[in-house]
TrEMBL record:
InterPro entries, A to Z: Conjugal_Transfer_TraC, TraC
Span list, region Disordered: 63-98
UniProt name for this protein: TraC family protein
Source taxon at top rank: Bacteria
């Protein structure tokens, strides 16, 4: 049995709302982490910050996890990963004047 277009539109609307909710939840989570890391205090161009986040995301996708300081730090790093920390206030590989 085929679905009517109105039913499909209702399903799409529900999915769009679920997407908005999920994106909001993810943004709040990342925002809290960024604030804890001190990014709220750094004056930098939004494009530079986005580039740094993209660089960080790519490193995680490749499995290059930066170990955190303290107890159990090695548990979070992956074997053979070449972790290169990004300096505070600079985008990945950029010379910035913030």
């Amino acid at each position: 049995m085929k679905k009517h277009s109105s039913k499909i539109r209702d399903e799409i609307a529900k999915l769009q709302e679920q997407l908005r909710t999920a994106e909001t939840r993810e943004a709040e989570r990342i925002g809290r982490i960024a604030l804890k890391a001190g990014l709220g205090e750094i004056e930098t161009d939004e494009n530079e910050l986005q580039a740094a986040f993209e660089h960080l995301a790519e490193r995680f996708r490749r499995g290059e996890v930066v170990p955190t300081e303290g107890k159990g730090a090695n548990e979070h790093s992956r074997k053979g990963a070449q972790a290169t920390p990004v300096a505070s206030g600079t985008a990945a590989g950029g010379d910035s004047e913030a």
